[in-house]
């Protein structure tokens, strides 16, 4: 039994690792400034990468840190895509850290991009510096079908990119995503982002440079991805980002009890008046009839006494009639 349980957990762990590795798309990496042998740079790099990973669960998706002294000091930072959850961000940084150590084992400067995050380190300060090199140009392998569609596509793409760049430089996190209708395709989706340690004006310059790179790499293609250390853009004809949840509907005011009907509703007023008339008139009428009956019985009894009417069936009948009439009035 223990044998099968052990195998179950073993294959579950393999499946989980495979799924985790496949949820991030590798884009590109670049290694520069070789030779880290006979120095403390490798140990400082490990400290830096560990610190980046530990802080990757921050909700803002950006962090920078450094470790070491002088020429062996390591500066590192990461940026997660603006639509990425803290959990996915940390997982992407873990994958990037492990991959960059394999790809650039002896380099003092390196950068790696995945679809969800970017990670870089260097032996020089890279904080709050807008950098556009290296520039990586990636494109969708599928072509736009004809010239008419291409013209519509390019017009919509230009409008979308201008809109997103304007939104990004106006936002606190220098990030924007959105879509646009009106092309030969149902929708065009786009995303732009800068590292939040540069100024909005620097972000605008960097993103505009990415947009100007589109014709040279991606003209006639259904998608493109321009990557720079300080900014990036991407567009596709399919949704590739996680859409923001729709805002909840405004809270409805608690329903108030219906007010009494006024003259603006004649029907309601008539109903209310009719009920009032019934409740008041019936007891009043009964009381008047009761008084009249008592007075009638009193006169009849007095007349019988005055004329010495013999007690008999007729007298009893008259008394019974008075009694029955009284009972009917009381229980009306």
TrEMBL record:
Signal peptide: 1-21
Keyword NADP part of the UniProt annotation: no
TM region positions: 276-299
Keyword check for Transmembrane: yes
Region annotation (Disordered) ranges: 246-271
PANTHER family in alphabetical order: CYSTEINE-RICH RECEPTOR-LIKE PROTEIN KINASE 9-RELATED, CYSTEINE-RICH REPEAT SECRETORY PROTEIN
Protein name per its UniProtKB record: Gnk2-homologous domain-containing protein
Lineage: Eukaryota, Viridiplantae, Streptophyta, Embryophyta, Tracheophyta
């Amino acid at each position: 039994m223990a044998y099968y349980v052990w195998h179950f957990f073993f294959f579950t762990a393999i499946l989980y690792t495979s799924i985790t590795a496949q949820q991030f798309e590798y884009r590109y990496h670049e290694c520069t400034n070789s030779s880290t042998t006979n120095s403390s740079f490798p140990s400082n790099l490990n400290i830096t990468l560990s610190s980046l990973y530990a802080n990757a669960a921050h909700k803002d998706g950006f962090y920078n840190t450094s470790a070491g002294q002088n020429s062996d000091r390591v500066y590192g930072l990461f940026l997660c895509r603006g639509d990425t959850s803290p959990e996915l961000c940390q997982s992407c940084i873990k994958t990037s850290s492990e991959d960059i150590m394999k790809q650039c084992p002896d380099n003092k400067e390196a950068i790696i991009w995945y679809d969800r995050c970017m990670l870089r380190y260097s032996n020089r300060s890279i904080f709050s510096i807008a950098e556009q090199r290296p520039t990586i140009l990636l494109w969708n392998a599928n072509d736009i079908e004809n010239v008419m569609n291409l013209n519509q596509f390019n017009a919509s793409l230009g409008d979308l990119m201008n809109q997103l760049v304007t939104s990004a430089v106006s936002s606190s996190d220098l990030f924007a995503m959105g879509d646009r209708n009106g092309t030969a395709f149902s929708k065009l989706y786009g995303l732009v982002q800068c590292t939040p340690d540069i100024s909005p004006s620097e972000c605008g310059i960097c993103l505009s440079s990415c947009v100007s790179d589109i014709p040279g790499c991606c003209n006639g293609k259904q998608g493109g991805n321009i990557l720079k250390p300080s900014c990036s853009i991407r567009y596709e004809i399919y949704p590739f980002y996680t859409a923001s949840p729709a805002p909840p509907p405004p809270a409805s005011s608690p329903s108030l009890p219906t007010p009494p009907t006024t003259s603006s509703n004649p029907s309601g007023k008539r109903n209310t008046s009719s009920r009032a008339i019934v409740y008041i008139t019936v007891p009043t009428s009964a009381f008047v009839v009761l008084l009249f009956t008592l007075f009638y019985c009193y006169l009849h009894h007095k007349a019988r006494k005055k004329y010495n009417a013999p007690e008999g069936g007729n007298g009893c009948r008259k008394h019974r009639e008075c009694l029955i009439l009284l009972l009917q009035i009381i229980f009306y």
